[in-house]
């Protein structure tokens, strides 16, 4: 059986009908990881023993007639999400020996639903990056072209799904880290509304932007996972006390005559022709096959989004990362006095990109500069929020590319941080505004690299955004394409 080609929904159906056992499915995926992950390097840790025993338990529960909405489904987890008893490194040397004594809320929820955790996936150190090259351990390769990056920072999770190591994984998205790797790897990634999914146990990067979300082969599977990830959590004061709607049930909603907007500011300089072409073809599908109205909209503050993000995110990061001081947990490099110990621990524990962010953030928050940088950036953030509010008065969805180009070559952008930062140009505003962003495949480049499409919607519009994505994927059916590894 070609286990690795099944979507989560298909796996679940077969498990429910008793056609397959979770143990066989889990074993088959573990075998595939053993056989192929030396090429891709999606996983930092494969938790084989725990996975097999969870799968066995799931099978026993099913035999007894017990039900769990994700009972026996194998998933992979980005390694910045805390897993009790399993190392959670954030792909950083400073946390290389950290074993959390607790599960993140999303992990608790997945376990309660019966999911099986296959392992922890690679990322850019502390989720800072767009290529997974900033991992302190090793870069991950793109399953469609091993010389190219899988995107980042959730590159390990996206590559694992694309390579058929699992049909679903968790990522985190602060400025595009779920959506951009999903588009580079030809899979689906959802950044939910800020507050939709609990951040408790997600290692904090930029707390006002971070959100956990699913990476899957299909939009339907993203809806399935979101169903059980979403919800209020008393342990996260920023999680929304809002009921969780029926995402799967909403997939078939009638969208005819809804309006999609294309922001004119997104189609300018830097966007590669092939990506633009695929976007146009997709708009044609929205119009002609799905009966939506397509019109131009304006998000006038778009040119300031990258600059705004690269003040706010590093500022929050510099404060969040102050906790890695060699005292409570993580790496400690001994020295004769306390200040020396801090210096040595942090100098040796953090990689160059993380240090760059800590320095930018500390500078932007320091006395005398706060007003000029952090305060100004927060004000521009409000203008970006208002841009979206205005646009969503005119249209129901906003459609854009996910990234200006398909996956770039490993090493191509490591020495040019600005160029790397610009790859987030279409994803960052969604985090600044806290709205929904879905990335899904819409075609391939001439070189055979996946190209993604982004559907944005207002706060808590996940049912509508997922429905539009699902109806589009059922026309293009790109989930039927697999990379040869
Ligand atoms: N690439 C962006 C950054 O480096 C976004 C990362 C993310 O979403 N975690 O900050």
Structure, explained:
It contains 16 helices and eleven strands. It is of the alpha/beta class. It folds into two domains: 3-257 and 396-480, Alpha-Beta Complex (Amidase signature (AS) enzymes); 303-377, no CATH class. The longest helix has 24 residues, at 371-394. The relative contact order is 0.14. The mean pLDDT is 97. The structure holds glutamine. Glutamine binds next to loops.
Q: Which labels suit this protein?
A:
Amidase signature (AS) enzymes; 11 strands; binds glutamine; 11-stranded mixed sheet; 485 residues; alpha/beta; globular
Briefly characterize the structure.
The protein has 485 residues and is of the alpha/beta class.
Number of strands: 11
Q: Please give the count of helices.
A: 16
Mean pLDDT: 97
CATH topology of the largest domain: Amidase signature (AS) enzymes
CATH class of the largest domain: Alpha Beta
The CATH architecture assignment of the largest domain turns out to be Alpha-Beta Complex
**Portion of residues in helices?**
25-40%
Low-confidence segments: none
CATH superfamily of the largest domain: Amidase signature (AS) domain
How far the N terminus sits from the C terminus, by CA atoms, comes to: 17 Å
Structure class: alpha/beta
Give the strand content. 5-15%
Q: Main sheet: which strands, in order across?
A: 1-3-2-4-6-5-10-11-9-7-8
């Amino acid at each position: 059986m070609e286990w690795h080609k099944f979507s989560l929904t298909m796996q679940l159906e077969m498990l429910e009908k008793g056609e397959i056992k979770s143990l066989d499915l889990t074993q088959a995926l573990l075998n595939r990881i053993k056989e192929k992950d030396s090429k891709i390097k999606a996983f930092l840790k494969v938790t084989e023993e725990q996975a097999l025993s969870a799968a066995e338990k799931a099978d026993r529960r099913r035999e007894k007639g017990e039900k769990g909405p994700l009972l026996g489904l194998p998933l992979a987890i980005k390694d910045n999400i805390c897993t009790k008893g399993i190392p959670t490194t954030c792909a950083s040397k400073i946390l290389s020996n950290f074993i959390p004594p607790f599960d993140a809320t999303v992990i608790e929820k997945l376990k309660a639903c019966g999911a099986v955790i296959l392992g922890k996936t690679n990322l850019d150190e502390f989720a800072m990056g767009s290529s997974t090259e900033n991992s302190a351990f090793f870069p991950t390769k793109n399953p469609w072209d091993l010389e190219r990056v899988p995107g980042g920072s959730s590159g390990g999770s996206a590559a694992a799904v694309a390579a058929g190591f699992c049909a679903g994984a968790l990522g985190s998205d602060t400025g595009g880290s779920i959506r951009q790797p999903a588009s580079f790897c030809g899979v689906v990634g959802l950044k939910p509304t800020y507050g939709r999914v609990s951040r408790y146990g997600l290692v904090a990067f930029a707390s006002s932007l971070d959100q956990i979300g699913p990476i899957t082969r299909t939009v339907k599977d993203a809806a399935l996972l979101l169903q059980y990830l979403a919800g209020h959590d008393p342990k996260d004061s920023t999680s929304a006390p809002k009921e969780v709607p029926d995402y799967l049930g909403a997939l078939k909603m009638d969208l005819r005559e809804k309006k999609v907007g294309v922001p004119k500011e997104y189609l300018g300089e830097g966007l590669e022709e092939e990506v633009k072409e695929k976007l146009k073809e997709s708009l044609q599908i929205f119009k002609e096959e799905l009966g939506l109205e397509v019109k131009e909209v304006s998000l006038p503050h778009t040119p300031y989004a990258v600059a705004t993000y690269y003040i706010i995110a590093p500022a929050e990061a510099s404060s969040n990362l102050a906790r890695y001081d060699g005292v409570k947990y993580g790496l400690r490099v001994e020295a004769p006095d306390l200040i020396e110990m801090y210096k040595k621990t942090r100098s040796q524990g953090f990689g160059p990109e993380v240090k760059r962010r800590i320095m930018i953030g500390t500078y932007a928050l320091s006395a005398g500069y706060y007003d000029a940088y952090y305060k100004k950036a927060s004000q521009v953030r409000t203008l970006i929020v208002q841009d979206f509010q205005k646009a969503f008065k005119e249209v129901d969805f906003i459609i854009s590319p996910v990234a200006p180009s398909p996956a770039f070559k490993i090493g191509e952008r490591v020495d040019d941080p600005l160029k790397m930062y610009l790859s987030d140009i279409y994803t960052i505003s969604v985090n600044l505004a806290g709205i929904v962003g879905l990335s899904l495949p819409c075609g391939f480049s001439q070189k055979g690299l996946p190209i993604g499409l982004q559907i944005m919607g207002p706060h808590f519009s996940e049912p509508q955004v997922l429905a539009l994505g699902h109806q589009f994927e059922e026309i293009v059916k790109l989930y039927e394409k697999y990379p040869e590894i």
